[in-house]
Predict the 3D structure of the following.
Amino acid sequence: MEIRPHRMTPEVENEVIKCLESGMSLTRTIEVLELGQQTIQKHRRKHPEFSARMKKAIMEGERECLNMIRTGARGWQGPAWLLGKKYPNSYGVKVDAPVPQHTVVIETPLLTKENKDLVLIEAEKANAPADTKAN
């Protein structure tokens, strides 16, 4: 779908700000409002006050999510998920998990399905971290 550029009127500016304050990404905002990427970029360069309003709106959306999480508001998990997806370095789940090792199974005529399952289980045990290995 070809998106034709809009004239950036004060009404369109306000719609952009509302979308960003709600937590919508800039990319999605541009799609929803059927704006051109270059239209926004040029308008931001030409109107630094609009660019500042956009930055503030993005921060307001983030702050609103954090307030819902902090207060334990009903449905706080949604904003928590959104923050984790939009800002993974700041709010994403950090997991210190070992990198799994690849298991190679050699198919032979003597390897039945039951034996193959047993080989896989034994290989997983051998690759498990030392503190979780079964005796």
Notes: DSSP finds seven helices and no strands in the chain. Residues 84 and 92 are 4 Å apart (CA to CA). The first helix runs from residue 10 to 21. The chain has two domains: 10-91, 97-130.
